Amino acid sequence: TTTVLVTNNAMLERNYDMDNPIRIRYITRNFDALQGLKMVPFGLYFLAMGAGWLGEQGDLSLSLPAFLLALLAYWLLGRYYARNFGRVEPEKGQVVFNFLLPLMILLLLWVASFVDYAMRLPVSIFGLTLALVLFAWWWLQEPRNRIHYAVMAGLVALISLAPLGGIGQGWSIIQPPGNLFHLLVGAILAVGGILDHLVLIKSFPQGRTA
Asked: Using N-to-C axis directions, what is the helix angle for 40-50 and 179-203, rounded to 10°?
């Protein structure tokens, strides 16, 4: 009934403070989420889409190979984490929760996007919902040491409210698909992923990696 951290690196095992239950609990509960480098390739993919480097919407000649390359990088980085940090044996039901949570978030964002399109309010409900998700991602995890998600939530909220100050075009300012949407998602994945990786390293004594 407990989550177990299994390290594959003898150096980590010698330096890991196994008498610190708070640290162990944090690592085991957030181990998958802290493997941030796995998200960076997808962040770069969205940034490239937002910059127009992968062609027009619907053009798969560059976007499809780039996405497949991001998937390959995701897999290779997963091997890197397994080799250098180990793995976590999840609690019963945790696998199902980890699968359902992204689907619930996507559904929530889809509903917010539909509200934007149907009501065409002077602000972006989609953006405000995304900001709420980011803030909740920071607030609901103990300890709250991933402050970068709270900062990103604030920035997304400001962009979503910018039309009230005459900046942007109301509800459509972050409406997907769009360049600003891709740039925002890309920045969140890339920057958040790198910072999550740094949190993972600092969670191990002396930041040991191979």
From this structure: 160
Angle subtended at Cα 32 by Cα 27 and Cα 13, rounded to the nearest 5 degrees: 45
What's this model's pTM, rounded to 2 decimal places? 0.82
| Backbone phi and psi for residue 89, each to the nearest 5 degrees, phi listed first | -90, 110
Cα(44)–Cα(194) distance, integer angstroms:
12
Radius of gyration of the chain (CA): 19
Which tokens is 165 given?
């100050």
Q: In which residue are the tokens 């696998």 written? A: 95
- pLDDT digit string, tens, across residues 88-121: 776 666 666 777 888 999 999 999 999 999 999 9
Whether omega before 65 lies within 30 degrees of 0, making that bond cis, reads: no
DSSP conformational letter for 142: S
